[in-house]
Amino acid sequence: MRISLMTTCLVDVMAPDVARATVTLLERLGHEVVFDRRQTCCGQMHTNSGYYTEAAPIVRSFVDTFEPALEEVDAIVMPSGSCTGCVRDQHALVARHEGDTALEERTAAVAARTYELSELLVDVLKVTDVGAYFPHSVTYHPTCHSMRFLKVGPRPLKLLRAVEGIEVKNLPESDTCCGFGGTFSVKNDATSDAMVTDKAANVVASGAEFVVAGDASCLMNIGGKLHRTGAAPRSVHLAQILASTKEDPFVPSETILGRAS
Amino acid sequence: MSTVQLGMPGVRPQHASPVSTLRGERGFPEAAREALGDATLRANMRHATSTIQAKRAGAVREVRDWQKLRSAGSALKWQVTDHLPELLEQLEESVAAAGGVVHWARDAEEASEIVTRLALERDAREVLKVKSMATQEIGLNEALAHAGIRAIESDLAELIVQLADDTPSHILVPAIHRNRAEIREIFLAAMPDLDPSITDDPAELAEAARRFLREKFLDMPGSVAICGANFAVAETGTLVVVESEGNGRMCLTLPRTLISVVGIEKIVPTFQDLEVFLQLLPRSSTGERMNPYTTLFTGVHEGDGPEEFHLVLLDNGRSSVLEDPEGRSALHCIRCSACLNVCPVYARTGGHAYGSTYPGPIGAILSPQMTGMSGTDDPNSTLPYASSLCGACYDVCPVKIDIPEILVHLRAKDVDRRREARGEFHGSWDLALKGASRLMSSPRAYDLAVRSAKPLSSLLPGANIGRLPGALPIIPGWTDHRDLPSPPQSFRSWWDEREKERVARGPEGPASDGPGENGRARSADGPAPDGDASAAGTPDGEERP
């Protein structure tokens, strides 16, 4: 299949290895990955902050980039539950707010072909064992948008359990939000801090070496708190684990969500 | 502004009156910061919310058709919202036919005036109350006190709050922020006859409250009691009060005069509809299959119960909530408080940080709609932002109110108001997001910006960014609490390097479709000139190739 990668702005800049891992994984599975440099952002930050009018040109840019390629690619993949959720549920809202019915129809066409990584693997590519190797203990944080809006359900855990050498440990209070919430983490920083402090403590209590999730933003939040407090567990994206093999194993770098090799 | 029929001719929607207890002194972030610093409060809240949450989950799991029940509850509430004027008129007729008297109150003042007048006309110096959110919202106890009438709360938790001169912090459990030891202190200070050897054992504390209240109940014949209602049946004029302690049953049956203050949204169309809500409410609320006391009363009956029944139907901002098609389902709330217990924000800050009678996720969408959001300085303008949009509230809501969607809708309303007001759209967030919008809708400018992100981050030493000075806008909110990655190279720069290598190496990448494919399909189009992008609206005119 030919798959168009929408890295998300946050991954492109702050967690580039998550996108690199997505490319490595999909190519290893025999698929072709294309990357359109005109891509910017899905507009989630603007939309969730209530800036619909300012989100609209970003949504237009998104549609302008991905709609013309719909005939050439089989799917669009985003390594992020919340950004996929924005494309699927909120682009239409933004178009409606602007009274742009043509844009609303176009967003629906793009959204219908846009998948979060675990959805793409399990539902579209029909694979759960991706031939990965990750000889470490991990604990899985489901992330709110993947769990409650996209309803990816057990897909990520199915993928993880098929990884050779992995040990999946239970995360206490796993379904509680990590406190990121986009601009919430800054506008209500004290509350957000209280939430991520508890989440980081639960990651430590799990006894796992890594906390894994399908959203780099949540992982940046949890990983940033773990790093600040000097706690041992590292955050790692699902794509990074699934891309890891015996020949080319994942080794974390000093940078949060970074890879050493 | 359009008019909404409320069973009165041509009523214009209006916000709740300022005397209502629907707005705090400070915005949420500031109030929350203080609450988060209170370790006892944090521990009390954590224990209480996780206990109730687990109990609810167990009670809900037992019901096989729970999702169908939720849908039924939601559908009934939409029916009420869509036909409120007719249903209100029907309720008025039914109540009158059963011997009750219906009063209409535009706002908190009118409702308090009606109740105070009724009490004064009956020479009541003390009135007993059944826990009621509506009377809390309108500040009825304070209005009565002003007229020299003492209101006594008969619900245990509400009594604790009243004796401590405190305010409720939860819809169902008003004293959730208090622990046993604190309650013992409150009782010792407020009940002069109490034996000082009392411990903080819940049974002993409940017994003390029971003795205190029983004296009040015994005084009741010939007096006045005030209650709210969980439901009001339009078809029959029946009011329903759902409770756990039996204090409600006492108050609803013993007095000579009973006054109910009920929000206009509490209507259900028919008696049979109670079947749905009496299943949804207790399981969502206390996590019980059925609550201990459900009292249904219809007008007056000679020789049985109160001799007089007055129903005060309260608007106080509800008509203005009804006016917004995207926000009006906030009125569907049946006050179960499941969204509070499951909310990770509420569980940490407690209810007082919301500044309103209605705290938690439902309060964050209800309070600002009832009062309006008058501007940046309005504390209620901060409430729609008091959420990480995790969606847990929507999952547990028994009538499927899409709270996250309404939160975002209200944020958009707040931003739109600022954008439309002259000279108000220049806060630091406004400027930052306007700038980001321009950048993120200009593929070429954005591409350049991302590529230059690396040299910028290389100004700061280390693999991650630690605490930054407070002078910088926005970012310190992040770096005060957590480190930030400082990656050496953006994805797109890496991709370009890889593409160059591929082209140099020739067409034999791992998944290549064949010769000549790489250059075009793999890296698709580079930053295209504007004309190259799809015709329908290349977003900005400032972009220059």
From TrEMBL, chain A:
GO-annotated molecular function: oxidoreductase activity
GO cellular component: cytosol
Transmembrane regions listed in the UniProt entry: none
InterPro entries: Cys_rich_dom
Residue intervals of the Cysteine-rich domain: 6-85, 138-222
Domain of life of the source: Bacteria
PANTHER family, per the entry: LACTATE UTILIZATION PROTEIN A, UNCHARACTERIZED PROTEIN YKGE
Protein name, entry field: (Fe-S)-binding protein
Lineage, top ranks: Bacteria, Bacillati, Actinomycetota, Actinomycetes, Micrococcales
Automatic annotation (TrEMBL), chain B:
GO MF, one example: metal ion binding
Bias (Basic and acidic residues) ranges: 494-505
Lineage, opening ranks: Bacteria, Bacillati, Actinomycetota, Actinomycetes, Micrococcales
Domain of life from the UniProt record: Bacteria
Renumbered residue ranges of the record's region Disordered: 1-26, 478-545
Pfam families attached to this UniProt entry: Fer4_8, LUD_dom, LutB_C
SUPFAM superfamilies per UniProt: 4Fe-4S ferredoxins (SSF54862), NagB/RpiA/CoA transferase-like (SSF100950)
Boundaries of every 4Fe-4S ferredoxin-type domain copy: 323-353
Organism from which the protein derives: Brachybacterium paraconglomeratum
Protein name: (4Fe-4S)-binding protein
